[in-house]
Design goal:
binds 2-phosphoglycolic acid; 253 residues; eight-stranded parallel barrel
Length: 253
């Protein structure tokens, strides 16, 4: 059971130093109302501003995460352009996204994702592991089998009793990301039920499962009724504080 909900922002390739003001505004809002403190708030922001955010003493409730880590090594090495788990951890950053469909589309193979998960676990990160099917697979009714395969492929070497405490699963249908299209609650409830069953049967694991894909202030009042959903991974609507605050307000209204 995971009673604490997650609201995770994914800024993708967006955000300059000045945009950290949005995080400070959300933080101020959260501080004002005790009921909002019952959830985890994490923003995965670009490497370039991660340190600025983490060392800003005003950010206390909000935690920050990276959007990826290097597959090359968890430590150091001659890998131009790479940023390792150890380097991110050095910022006191404890969260990272791994396996986002945009990273997969940019070249991350299952082997790469396996390595990234291993490195992140070695450095004691909490991983937001993303899974989700294409529109083609959705239309062919292969969503569930495909996502189960993604889970098995990438978690089989990495999921143990201890590590399962450090993995958050985010189901993001690729066709839903940035499109405004969101599966209905009946579909998602059933989907989450099957995934939870699979995790339990195959890995004896009980991971929190988030939904991601076009979550916004417009649909959160519907999505909040998802019984088996432990929270949300929010892209576009996490960039501006007013939209993100609206999501939280409506979720708790
Ligand atoms: P979106 O992105 O909310 O803009 O659809 C979600 C994500 O890709 O994590």
């Amino acid at each position: 059971m995971h009673s604490k909900k997650y609201f995770i922002g994914n800024w993708k390739m967006n955000g300059l130093k000045k945009d950290l003001i949005h995080l400070l505004t959300v933080e101020k809002f959260l501080k004002k109302n005790i009921k909002y403190k019952a959830a985890n708030y994490i923003f995965c922001i670009p490497y370039t501003i991660l340190g600025f955010g983490i060392f800003n003493k005003k950010l206390k409730i909000i935690k920050l995460g990276s959007q990826d880590i290097s597959k090359k090594s968890s430590d150091f090495g001659a890998f131009t352009g790479e940023v390792s788990a150890k380097m991110i951890k050095d910022l006191n950053c404890n969260y990272t996204i791994i396996g986002h469909s945009e990273s997969r589309a940019a070249g991350d193979s299952d082997r790469d994702i396996n390595l990234k998960i291993k490195h992140a676990l070695d450095m004691d990160f909490k991983i937001i592991y993303c899974v989700g099917e294409s529109i083609g697979r959705f239309k062919k009714k292969q969503s569930l089998s495909y996502v189960k395969k993604q889970i098995d492929l990438n978690l089989k070497n990495n999921l143990s009793k201890t590590s399962s405490k450090n993995i958050i699963l985010a189901y993001e249908p690729i066709w839903s990301i940035g499109s405004g299209l969101v599966p209905d609650n009946h579909y998602l409830n059933n989907f989450f039920f099957e995934i939870k069953k699979h995790l339990k049967k195959k890995f004896k694991a009980d991971l929190p499962i988030l939904y991601g894909g076009s979550v916004s202030q417009k649909n959160i009042s519907i999505l909040k009724n998802l019984k088996l959903c432990n929270g949300f991974l929010v892209g576009g609507a996490s960039l501006k504080s007013n939209n993100f605050i609206d999501i939280i307000k409506k979720y708790y209204s």
